[in-house]
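pipeline: protein-struct stage 2 | run 1193 | MOSC domain-containing protein
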Amino acid sequence: MTRLDNLLIGGPKPFRADGTMSAMARDPVHRPVMLRTLGFEGDEVADPTVHGGVDKAVHFYPVEHYPKWIAHFAGEGISHPLLDSAGAFGENISATGLTEDKVRIGDRFRIGKALVEVAQGRQPCWKIDHHFGVHGLTGAVIKTGRCGGYFRVIEEGEVAPGDQIEQVEQAGHDWAIARVFKLLIGGGHRGDGANADLKALAELETLAESWRGRAVKLVA
C-alpha cells in the first residue's frame, strides 16, 4: 500500500516550431477527478495514434526515480528545473512503491474509488529529449529501464491526491514491467532463449495489445 502523492492532468500544448503538439506538460490538481475508461476527465493526448486508449489510460511514474535522474544530470553538470517537481515525464500519477521491478503486468490496484490494472511499461520517444532539451535522454531511459508504466481502468471512480493506492490482486506470473521492458524495448529479444519468452508474452492476456503484437513481430 502507498499513496497518490501527485495527480496531474493536462491537454495538448504547442511543443515545437513545426506545429507539433504534446500533452506531456501536465499540471497538478488538488481536487477529486473522475477516472474513466480512457483516462482522467480533463486529461487528453496530442496524438491518439500512439498515446492514450484503453491500455494507456493512466501513466504512472515512480517518485524513486527522480533522485536518480537528478544525479544523472549532475554528472553532466546540469541542474534541470523539470525535476524540481512531479510531472517531468508526463505522468498522471506520482507515487512511491510502483517501481518497474516490483509491479507486474496484470497487478490490480484500488486508487480512491477506481480499480486499475497494470497493462504495460511506457515506451519512451524523442519527445522526452525535446521536453527536457537534452539529447540522449530517451536512450538513457531505455538503458536504465526507468520507464514507468500504464494502467487500464477496470472500474471507473473518483480519484483524489492523497488517496491510498492499495494492491488488491497480484498477477500469477513473474512478468514485472522491468522484465517485459528489457525484452521488448531494451534489446533483450536478441539474447539466447528469448523466443520462448516472447511467445509467452504474446499469450499474456493482461499485457497491452500493442505490446503483445510487438512480441509476435520480434519472434518473426
